Amino acid sequence: MDSKGQLRAVARQRRRVRENKALIDAAVRDHLLTHLRSCARVAAYSPMPTEPGGEELPDVLAATGLEVFLPVTLGAGVLEWALHVPGQLARGAHFGITEPTGERFPSSMLSSCDVVIVPALGVDRRGMRLGQGAGYYDRALVHAGAVPRIALVYDDEVHDVLPSEPHDKPVDGAVTPQGFLRFKGTSPGAATVQ
Questions:
Q1: In CA terms, which of 41, 103, 162, 166 is 20 to 30 Å from 10?
Q2: Helix (H, G, I), strand (E, B) or coil at 136
Q3: Would the pLDDT of 107 be above 60?
Q4: Which residues bind ATP (predicted)?
Q5: Which residues participate in the annotated binding site for ATP?
Q6: Domains and CATH numbers, the chain
Q7: Cα 35 from Cα 123, distance rounded (Å)
Q8: What residue numbers does the annotated binding site for substrate cover?
Q9: Buried b / exposed e along 85-108 (16+ C-beta atoms within 10 A)
């Protein structure tokens, strides 16, 4: 089995050279929106240019009437969350990712969401997620309780098994350009995502 570092390097390289990205990202967004029809409040993220869903993901979610909370990255692996208002984003201080500028809330607010949409460089069929490696989301997801967690990945980023550690938090499903994958053994709340 490859190490997490090797898997991250391969995923990042594939993302840099992905063809037809705009069309693929539109398919990811369409499948995601299908599964969020009964939701009112979601926690999401501002995708970097190479990430699934495309940079317009927060605006697309908000345009459907969803209340969308995005992370604000603090030091020491901590995320806070603020309501996304289209056009009111600023470059984050830590990673240069766009972040909302409004009132901030601690990660405990995730338990009030219908779904938490998380970034990933890959997922496996057990629901284990390969993140960027800093552990921000694993720390934040501790506060989500039974709220369903969905990763956005490309089709070639779904693996049979990924290396994992005890602190890694699984996801309940993943959205790919081909559709929605639900993982066995994940939280019962995943069944509420339609």
A1: 166
A2: helix
A3: yes
A4: 4-8, 129-137
A5: 4-8, 129-137
A6: 3-182 (3.40.50.10420)
A7: 18
A8: 51
A9: eeeebeebeeeebbbbeeebeebe
Given the structure tokens 């901590």, which residue do they identify? 78
Is 62 strand, coil or helix? helix
Rounded Cα distance, 101 and 172, in Å: 29
Q: Of 138, 177, 134, which is closest to residue 20 (Cα–Cα)?
A: 177
59-to-70, 83, 87, 93, 123 alpha-carbon distances in Å: 11, 12, 9, 21, 25
pLDDT band at 185 (very low <50, low <70, confident <90, very high): low
**Average pLDDT of span 32-60:** 95
- Gap between the Cα atoms of 60 and 55, Å rounded: 10
Q: What is the mean pLDDT of residues 184-188?
A: 55
pLDDT in the model for residue 37: 93
Cβ–Cβ < 8 Å for 181, 31: no
Task: Tally Cβ neighbours within 10 Å of residue 43.
Answer: 27
